Amino acid sequence: MLRSVVLFLIALAAVPGARAQEIAFERATRVEAALPQSSVYEILEDQRGFLWFATREGLGRWDGTTMRTWRRDPFDAASLPGNIVRRLVEDDRGDIWARAEATDWTPKGIARLIGPGHDEVRRYEHPAATQVFVGPDGEAWLADSTHLWRFDRSRDAFVRARERLGSAPASASLTTRDGTVWIATDLGLEAGLEAYLSRGPARSVPFDSPWTGDIGNGTHVSTLTEAPDGTLWIAGSRLGRVVGTRVETLALPLPEIAGYGTGFGANRLLADDDGLWMPGLNGVYRYTFSTEALSRYALSLPGDIETQNWITGFHRDRSGTLWAGTVWGLHHATPGGSPFRLLAHDPNDANTIGSGIVLSIHRDRLGALWIGTLGGGLNRIAPDGTVTRYRHDPEDPATLAHDWVWSLASDDETLWIGTGDGLHSIALEAPGAVRRYVFPERPRDGYGPSAYGLHMDPTGTLWFGHLGGLYRRSPSGEF
Length: 479
Description:
Blueprint: E1 7-11, E2 26-27, H1 29-34, E3 40-45, E4 51-55, E5 58-62, E6 67-70, E7 85-90, E8 96-100, E9 109-114, E10 120-124, E11 131-134, E12 140-143, E13 147-152, E14 157-163, E15 170-175, E16 181-185, E17 192-196, E18 203-205, E19 221-226, E20 232-236, E21 239-243, E22 246-249, E23 256-257, E24 261-262, E25 270-271, E26 275-280, E27 283-288, E28 293-297, E29 311-316, E30 322-326, E31 330-333, E32 340-344, E33 358-363, E34 369-373, E35 378-381, E36 387-390, E37 405-410, E38 414-419, E39 422-427, E40 435-436, E41 451-456, E42 462-466, E43 469-473
Antiparallel strand pairs: 1-32, 2-31, 3-4, 4-5, 5-6, 7-8, 8-9, 9-10, 11-12, 12-13, 13-14, 15-16, 16-17, 17-18, 19-20, 20-21, 21-22, 23-24, 25-26, 26-27, 27-28, 29-30, 30-31, 33-34, 34-35, 35-36, 37-38, 38-39, 39-40, 41-42, 42-43
């Protein structure tokens, strides 16, 4: 007899014990469809967890459900100074700062979206500024060819903080944890770093060898980041790090990118304990500290077309998801494996879920994942990946009364289960016996005994639909 296998897909991040695999970028179609425009130049996660996207047609803020947008209105001074937004930062007060590029009809400008609601937008004219960043005082700072500027809230204006060491345009900026302001300059063979200490004189940090090559728009140094161990990393056409008083260039093979030249063309660096993420003109590179190995990840596009792997914005959110913005659209990936792991029902394997037709999914406070199915009962996936099945047994009242599990919810002590034959519960600390609840009311006409739509509100009250009506259980245990 042909064995039927119904497949169940679940996010890898939610599956304990999932096997690590190579990351795979996928098109973030739901978020992309809500963007002001699909070319994404910068991605920022604010203090409240909202994701901000800088595009060619303004700003978008994604709250997980809806996208709010900000654009330039030529008749409203309280709007963005321009729609082509290239840079986003958030200061310690929760204000969002955006740098808009100049166009034929709008000058370059700086906008401040005042938190926490960001309903008020203020403009600041500083056309010479090429960098906006958060300084050692937690306020927004600007860098132009001659000076560093600090935002003064009492004046609602930028004031000069100190003179620059040189006169080259700033191509990257960063404040490290010790309060040092770093400015990268791009003078071709004379590219270098400038360090402005919170106290004391500024100093230059030369490169050990020239960063040559013809890559992209010619910018050889375009991004800085500080690793958890305090090392300052620099990237652009190449990858390097500050060692003592100089920049050490890593001896890595440089890619040849058709139409662009030789080099990485990196525009972002993200550091973690294990290595660096480095997006550029030809996909996303991963440099691993322990092995000094370099790997490349392409976006999921037909034919791995180089020009479609030009990444213009990159971010890792607090859940670990990587977001990659391109001139072609928005992508995302979950590191440590492919975005989804496939779990298949196998009647001959007790360590699989009882049915592939999944009706409900819930994670409890202990980290166990509960899966309610149609006909396969309830399944518990423990943090170590072990699967336990809970099925109806007509001879045992401490089992499910019905193998259709419509809805799940939990509090600190109990998993609540809405089945095809009423409300049940299981103790989280001792997930064995099932307790059934019977109510004296008769079902209304047209309604059966199922319990649906379980919801645990912030007060600890359980709400659910049953017998054609709405029921609740108070935190004290009364129905």
